[in-house]
Amino acid sequence: MINIVLPVDFGDKTDQLVDGAIEFAKKVNGKISLIHVAPTDIGFAIGDMGYQYFPEIEENEIREELVLLNKINQKILSHDIDCEHLLKQGIAKDIILEYADTKNADFIVMGSHGRSGIYDVFVGSLTKGITKNSKIPVVVLPIHDNI
Question: Domain UspA spans what residues (predicted)?
Answer without folding.
Answer: 3-142
